[in-house]
Amino acid sequence: MADQVLVTLDGAVHDADVPFLHADDLAAVRGDGVFETLLVRDGAARTVELHLARLTTSAAALDLPRPDLDAWRSAIAVAVGEWDSGREGVLRLVLSRGREGAGEPTAYLTVGPVASRVASARRDGISVCTLERGFSVDVTETAPWLLHGAKTLSYAMNMAALRHAHGLGVDDVIFTSSEGLVLEGPRSTVLISRGRTLVTPPVEHGILPGTTQQALYEVAGAHRFRCETAPLRPADLIAADGIWLLSSVTLAARVHTLDGLALPVPEIAAELSGLVDLAVDTVGVEEDAA
Ligand code: PLP
User: Fold this and answer.
1) What is the pLDDT confidence band of residue 215, given thresholds at 50, 70 and 90?
2) How many Å lie between the centroid of ligand 1 and the Cα of residue 177?
3) Are the CB atoms for 33 and 96 separated by under 8 Å?
4) Which residue of 34, 208, 244 sits with most ligand 1 atoms within 8 Å of its CB, as the best mutation to test the pocket?
5) Is pLDDT at 275 greater than 80 in this prediction?
6) pLDDT tens digit string along 171-209?
7) What is the pTM of this model?
8) Atom 4, ligand 1: which residue's CA is nearest?
9) How far, in Å, from the CA of 80 to the mean position of ligand 1?
10) How far does the centroid of ligand 1 lie from the alpha carbon of residue 123, in Å?
């Protein structure tokens, strides 16, 4: 039996063992759609409003109909209610262009178990290699059709980069631009620390705005951190006190080895992961929504 919950946007709960998607859905044949991945913890989906805001901007980038956010909120509540509240889960929101020629989007949610790599990434950190993504940082302006900055279903390149890293015996990747600037991970935002200053690369460089980084920056100021956005080069990573890959499910994965170089544990390591926990527990719950 599937260890999975499947709910459609109308709130109907489906048997996750029964085939669901039509063979000609443009999600399957073109990767033509958008998605979000959220952490479910203590019976609640985390940073929901930040994810719904990004779902809306991703859908707009693909000329998909504007998501009905109240319908998504209700369906999220149904899906999370179907999941064992004592267990962490991964909630996916999927919005595709629908069946070929039908003109009607397909919208559904799943909840499933957290991958086993997540616990060790949180606890022990990760090794990372830098890989060139092959685009300039001005790609969003010069080639908006590449949809950088939207969370589309076309993740084959990201997964290929991760397989390449695994082939090298490395856990994860930090992409760099053609001019050698730090971008993001295939499924994460890059964050460095210099003392109590946190720095992340600008989203204008064609990277996805990370909800975990946004939530962290909302709370970090009150905990005596300075939060900055600035271009970074690989040399800045090596010179930093700490490097993390931030993402909704893994949360804060400290980079312990970069391109084969072992990095010392920064003084703020435990404090930072506590702050990310606090951020995802408190930011982007519905009452916050403007
Ligand atoms: N960048 C990319 C390319 C991603 O795929 C993700 C998450 O999947 C992130 C950044 C981090 O975003 P979030 O913190 O919202 O999970």
Assistant:
1) very high
2) 17
3) yes
4) 208
5) yes
6) 999 999 999 999 999 999 999 999 999 999 999 999 999
7) 0.97
8) 187
9) 21
10) 20
User: Tell me: the pLDDT tens digits for 10-44?
Assistant: 999 999 999 999 999 999 999 999 999 999 999 99
